[in-house]
Design goal:
MarR family winged helix-turn-helix transcriptional regulator (chains A, B), DNA-binding (chains A, B), homodimer, HTH_MarR-typ (chains A, B), DNA-binding, Arc Repressor Mutant, subunit A, transcription (chains A, B), disordered N terminus, 6 helices, transcription regulation (chains A, B), mainly alpha
Chain lengths: 160, 160
Amino acid sequence: MSNVSFPGAQTIPGTKATLGSLLRRPYEYLQAKVYGELSARGFPDIRPAHSSLLRYIRPEGSRVVDLAERAQITKQSMAYLVGDLEGLGYVTVVPDPDDGRAKRVMLTTRGQAVWTTLIELSLAAEVNCAELIGADDMATLRRILQNLSQALETQGSGAS
Amino acid sequence: MSNVSFPGAQTIPGTKATLGSLLRRPYEYLQAKVYGELSARGFPDIRPAHSSLLRYIRPEGSRVVDLAERAQITKQSMAYLVGDLEGLGYVTVVPDPDDGRAKRVMLTTRGQAVWTTLIELSLAAEVNCAELIGADDMATLRRILQNLSQALETQGSGAS
DNA sequence: TATAAATGGACAGATAGTCTGTCTAAATAA
DNA sequence: TTATTTAGACAGACTATCTGTCCATTTATA
């Protein structure tokens, strides 16, 4: 079930797939799978763009600027997502007790439900992938990607 | 040079990073790097969206429907990209000799230049990553991702 | 303490890149 | 020969992003 089809393979014969395309394909597969199933689970109004908020919101609530900074988008864009999810009933916005300018974005009960479901489905999709390539390779894949992410992070903020 | 900064790390403490996020981070890094440098190389008007066309166009030229099918977008969306790149001088559109309804999208000289440069920069970005994690791990990463892609492809089009 | 600077967010407007729906012309099948 | 399918064009809509400007509040400074 949840038959996610797959884009065409090779462009120019004799050209090796770029690392980017090797990363992109499974990523897009996972995203399609997770958001497809999310819809089937009763959250059809949650779209991939919303993940910029859902990924970074904290249980105590988060301010728009913080969410924007973590998601690497402008605060206006994040405000748009907040407004959208607020209208859909997934978040509420309350005044920040510590800062009169600020507001806190908080998950509603439904928001928490979608958050949990997203984690659940992501995990399930990963298990599915692990079945395809084997648990050992999945562990290795995770380890290497984790290393790479960390190395890029330090490279990005650190040395020239 | 080309200091690409990196989004925040963890959401909820005690939550493992999803496979999706592990794939996404390096992918977005690569994309930012490649398109940033592409701009510096004299192609500032090429945007990531154009890659849907550039990735799949063939040297003999390709029809819009074929490009759309490979890129997994509607033909209208692909037509928009074709029109855009045509206006920018990267592709030309000629009538298909074998089919009076169809047209062939072909890379201009400048289009071929950008194509070559994209491959070059992608390769360079991969080498950069390989330096960070080591050549062995990069080879392993490639192997596993290739397996995964292929497995997902056959799963997607094949068994339920 | 009074004022200047920085910060969190709101509002307005623009744009890119995607979609659906409808249409024509040409090719293919019945 | 007629019906169906296919390639693409056109119109319209919408999502998710951006820039620019503004206000209110907080923080730093003179």
